[in-house]
Amino acid sequence: MAERKIGFIGLGIMGQPMVANLQDAGHTLVVHDLDRDRLHHAVLAGAAEATSPREVAESSEVVITMLPDSPDVEAVALGSDGLIEGATRGQLYIDMSTIAPQVAVRVADEMCERGVRCLDAPVSGGDVGAIEGKLSIMVGGDEATFTDALPILRVMGETITLCGPIGSGQIVKACNQIQVALNLVGMAEALTLGAKAGVDPEVVIEVLSGGYARTRVMDVRGPRVIRGDFEPGFKAKLHYKDINIVMQSGRDYGVPLPASAIARELFGAMLAAGRGELDHSAILTVLEDLARVEARTD
Amino acid sequence: MAERKIGFIGLGIMGQPMVANLQDAGHTLVVHDLDRDRLHHAVLAGAAEATSPREVAESSEVVITMLPDSPDVEAVALGSDGLIEGATRGQLYIDMSTIAPQVAVRVADEMCERGVRCLDAPVSGGDVGAIEGKLSIMVGGDEATFTDALPILRVMGETITLCGPIGSGQIVKACNQIQVALNLVGMAEALTLGAKAGVDPEVVIEVLSGGYARTRVMDVRGPRVIRGDFEPGFKAKLHYKDINIVMQSGRDYGVPLPASAIARELFGAMLAAGRGELDHSAILTVLEDLARVEARTD
Question: What is the C-alpha separation between B162 and B169, in angstroms, rounded?
């Protein structure tokens, strides 16, 4: 694979290992983060440091962003000293953040006007997936741009799917977060009803996992949840952010999402109770609170 | 296995094949149904016909009921000319209907006062499971009664779990129907959002099935749902009945179930639209209606 000069913005819990994998694969990195401490490892391993997104764009063939939320991506891409100010024709821009699909479309539209080729490419798989280079990557964009980006994406991910035109990666990520949220809420309501009616939660998990009710969420988290082990995993506060994107997408595309709305409120209650740092499976504790089942953790 | 004299009440779409399997296993059957036409096959195969539940109880060692809903079980067990009037000490009574857990407890309490040993034993697996003798059976009751009933249950089911004391089988069945309903609703909201945002539903299914969002519901029904194939399967009207039992259980045991409540309303909308005979996965069509996505079936 050809080595390329890659700019990377956002070296958080996901971005840092993604950068490390790109460096290990022989690429030359230019990195930027508002928190300069986060650049430490990347710079030690040979990355150049840029002082603004504009500078990153000016010195890279490919720019990747991995940022917390939609406004961050808008600011980094389109804001003052943003990517757009340093963009060059034919440059490749891959936003791997999870953001609102319509923001992804708007950012790509503006970048495209400057001749930048864009992909939205949100991931799932968490920090473990990022460290192991085994993320699932959901990509929106045109086929030629996807093909060009694929060798780079393969350094970070295992399952990489072109979902459709720009924004489609974010849409599929939103769909994914709907299904995971409702699988979790279903498990939580089932376990709470079972517990309050006096049924051993292990029996509930055993029976449900043995049949049509089975979910991967239950396979992975069921045994831990009933021990009160809510070590993340995927933090509730991040799923709450993602469900807010889901609800925004519903409004943007005209799709009422009544069950996701309930999931959003339940995750909101979890954050209000100060449990945003727990694994999202701790949504169970919100149902337990509602039903006044004796809490197993707090 | 010792042949036993088994009374069976309720020869509907589930009961008929269950009776046939019991007859094939060498048991002697006494059967009863309000609709006498349904007794035809069982009688041809050697079953005696009883004119009332009382008569069934008077002439059987073991009585099994497989009825539509809680009031039917209450009437057959405790009503005039009911099982309780013909009950004998030490008799075994297995209710395999899906009913409200607290009704199961009340019926068992009254039967128990006459010396009848009771189990609640609702099933999942549908008519195909009933025909093949491969139902999942969730049993509530004491261990000795369960052990006594096990050879009979094994004729009808494959996975048979003692879930706890009387009522526990119904509780676990309710938990199962919560999880399945929310897995279905999650799939429906995800596919509707994806479709209206222009993403190929096959891509949504492919990506979600490949990761943490995976459910057995999606494995089994996803490919059919996106073709608009809603052939049951498990009819929506039956899941609606079951979710009403879920909500009743939530009230009885003091467990608020906000997401299940939404699922109940969505299934209610499906029945109101005249789609109660479709597979429950057709809950997708309700979301499509809400979002005014072009319907693929009606």
Answer: 7
C-alpha angle with apex A193: A187 to A199, nearest 5 degrees? 100
In the CATH scheme, what is the code of domain B171-291?
A: 1.10.1040.10
| Cβ(A216)–Cβ(B215) below 8 Å | yes
Query: What pLDDT, in 10s, does the model give residues B147-204?
Result: 999 999 999 999 999 999 999 999 999 999 999 999 999 999 999 999 999 999 999 9
Q: What value of ipTM does the predicted structure carry?
A: 0.95
CATH class, domain A5-166, is: alpha beta
Q: Give the gap in angstroms from C-alpha B34 to the nearest C-alpha of chain A.
A: 32
pLDDT tens, residue by residue, A240-273 = 999 999 999 999 999 999 999 999 999 999 999 9
B173 labelled catalytic: yes
The label of the residue with tokens 């080595």 reads A3
Longest dimension (CA), chain B: 65
What count of other Cβ atoms lies within 10 Å of the Cβ of residue B231?
Answer: 10
Distances (CA, A) of A243 to A34, A99, A188, B150, B155: 26, 11, 17, 46, 46
C-alpha–C-alpha distance, residues B223 and B212, integer Å: 18
On the question of a common fold for B5-166 and B171-291, the answer reads no
- Indicate which of B255, B264, B287, B290 best probes the interface with A, i.e. most A CBs within 10 Å of its own CB: B255
Long-range CB contacts (within 8 A, 24+) of A130-135? A130/A13, A130/A14, A130/A17, A130/A18, A130/A21, A130/A156, A131/A17, A133/A21, A133/A157, A133/A158, A134/A158
Domain definitions of chain B by residue range: 5-166, 171-291
- Residues contacting B53, CB < 8 A, separation 6+: B9, B32, B76, B77, B79, B81, B82, B83, B86
Tens digits of per-residue pLDDT, B22-71?
Answer: 999 999 999 999 999 999 999 999 999 999 999 999 999 999 999 999 99
Single pTM value for the model? 0.95
Q: If you ran DSSP here, which 8-state letter would residue A12 be given?
A: S
Rounded distance between C-alpha atoms, residue A70 and residue A173, angstroms: 14
Query: Which residues of chain B does A203 touch, with a Cβ-Cβ cutoff of 8 Å?
Result: 161, 163-164, 168, 172
Chain A positions in Cβ-Cβ contact with residue B190 (cut-off 8 Å) = 175-176, 178-179
